[in-house]
Amino acid sequence: MDRKQKIDSSFLGSGWAFPIAFSVGDHSLNLTKSEQNINDSIDLILHTRTGERSMEPQFGSGLQQFIFRKMDETLKGEMADAINVSLLQNEPRITVKNVRVEFKDQQNGMVDIGIDYVFNQTNTRHNYVFPYHLNEGTNLRK
């Protein structure tokens, strides 16, 4: 591996896998690196409420505010906007090119969020699909 590849790879980062887990054999902490580390970071940002982290109040996406809202074009735009802003503020290793919000199953509140992004250092394109439920707790029986 030449020097440029090492720089590119190290820029993408490494860190603890989420959720935190240990390997079975040697009981070491599971780690992620490169693309997987960035995908884990995106997942963590999208699952976190804005203000939930005490030392980083801007961290998170705030997608929880959209639960139980009417599923229309306005909601799609607001969700895409929230995701763009949260990734811009919290994930400096990528540049978001497009966010697609699709209502997969309106009856059950299933939304697919597609994020197209480019790694800043390597200029390679990737995408990420985040399944999200707007109507949580709807499986309760009367």
Structure description:
This protein is an alpha+beta fold. The chain has a single domain (3-133), classed as Roll (Nuclear Transport Factor 2, Chain: A), CATH 3.10.450.40. 30% of the residues lie in helices and 26% in strands. The chain contains 3 helices and 5 strands, in the order αββααβββ. The strands form 2 sheets. The protein has a 3-stranded antiparallel sheet, covered by helices on one side. Strands 1-2 form a two-stranded antiparallel ribbon. A hairpin with a 4-residue loop joins strand 3 (94-105) and strand 4 (110-119). Helix 1 (3-12) runs parallel beside helix 2. The protein starts with a helix and ends in a 9-residue tail after the last strand.
List keywords for this structure.
alpha+beta; two-stranded antiparallel sheet; disordered N terminus; three-stranded antiparallel β-sheet; 26% strand; 5 strands; 142 residues; Nuclear Transport Factor 2, Chain: A
Summarize the helices and strands and which ones pair or pack.
Layout: H1 3-12, E1 14-16, E2 31-33, H2 34-47, H3 73-90, E3 94-105, E4 110-119, E5 125-133
Antiparallel strand pairs: 1-2, 3-4, 4-5
Helix pairs in contact: 1-2
